[in-house]
From TrEMBL:
This is VIP36-like protein isoform X3. InterPro entries: ConA-like_dom_sf, Intracellular_Lectin-GPT, Lectin_leg. It is a single-pass type I membrane protein. It comes from Equus przewalskii. The chain crosses the membrane at residues 279-303. Its main location: membrane.
Length: 315
């Protein structure tokens, strides 16, 4: 979806009045256990071992943008007996189910996670070990990750090794609306939330030097395991932001082809060698045999000449 798709700053939306079940449904795909409800999309019901996703069909070619997400997480589970959360994506690939909140691992792009279950903390408790106060996180927890396809999301540690930043976000079973906004301007990633019922944005994550290619897809996904929750998306709204750039910024902010973060080393992707075709494999074997026969013939000729010279010496 390029800038030409936007008649104003508002580019597309999913929500009350123009959801998947309306004329805008051509922009969206559901996957897995996701269901269209009257006022929202339910990614997963409050049942074990479910996963669902919602993906926009058209790639986004906007340079500067803001995505506003209206969501609700609720269920019967009591404290720390619910899970697992939902994710918002801006990635190269879409509709790829997997273990990372219902999406593929080693994705290429940006993932923002609303994680409701502390896997690492529970493992520490099971091993009768304690967190030090300096590293303990309070859940639910929002975090972000940029990936070039080389990193795995560490589910057992709640993504800690690869997170760009995060904050606590008490979002379960609230009786008022909860919102998340992802803003990408001049390679500056900002994530804010409105979860207190005050209609005010509160800072969560701010990371400069984030380089995201254009032409990726927006989506959201969720997964449940032994624990569960209802994960509902009420609206997704994308806005194009008009930003002035200096000539120097224009030079520095050229399009990139692989996600990265300044001052953060991501392992480089090594493209796998393409498999050999049947013809190529035949030619390699054929010429190898020809070379082997040629080498044997040359060896026999040289050996016979050496024997003749040896006989002449003795006579």
């Amino acid at each position: 979806m390029g800038p030409e798709c936007c008649s104003s700053s508002f580019c597309w939306g999913l929500g009350r009045g123009h959801g998947v079940g309306t004329s805008t449904s051509s922009l969206w795909n559901l996957m897995g256990n996701a269901m269209v409800m009257t006022q929202y999309i339910r990614l997963t019901p409050d049942m074990q071992s479910k996963q669902g996703a919602l993906w926009n069909r058209v790639p986004c070619f906007l340079r500067d943008w803001e995505l506003q997400v209206h969501f609700k997480i609720h269920g019967q589970g009591k404290k720390n007996l619910h899970g697992d959360g939902l994710a918002i994506w801006y990635t190269k690939d879409r509709m790829q189910p997997g273990p990372v909140f219902g999406n593929m691992d080693k994705f290429v792009g940006l993932g923002v996670f609303v994680d409701t279950y502390p896997n690492e903390e529970k493992q520490q408790e099971a091993q009768k070990r304690r967190y030090s106060p300096g590293v303990q996180r309070v859940f639910p927890y929002i975090s972000a990750m940029v990936n070039n396809g080389s990193l795995s999301y560490d589910h057992e540690r709640d993504g800690r090794p690869t997170e760009l930043g995060g904050c606590t976000a008490i979002v379960r079973n609230l009786h008022y609306d909860t919102f998340l906004v992802i803003r990408y301007v001049k390679r500056h990633l900002t994530i804010m939330m409105d979860i207190d019922g005050k209609h005010e944005w509160r800072d969560c994550i701010e990371v400069p030097g984030v380089r995201l290619p254009r032409g990726y897809y927006f989506g959201t996904s969720s997964i449940t395991g032994d624990l569960s929750d209802n994960h509902d998306v009420i609206s997704l709204k994308l806005f194009e932001l008009t930003v002035e750039r200096t000539p120097e910024e224009e030079r520095l902010h050229r399009d990139v082809f692989l996600p990265s973060v300044d001052n953060m080393k991501l392992p480089e992707m090594t493209a796998p060698l393409p498999p050999l075709s049947g013809l190529a494999l035949f030619l390699i074997v054929f010429f190898s045999l020809v070379f082997s026969v040629f080498a044997i013939v040359i060896g026999i000729i040289l050996y016979n000449k050496w024997q003749e010279q040896s006989r002449k010496r003795f006579y």
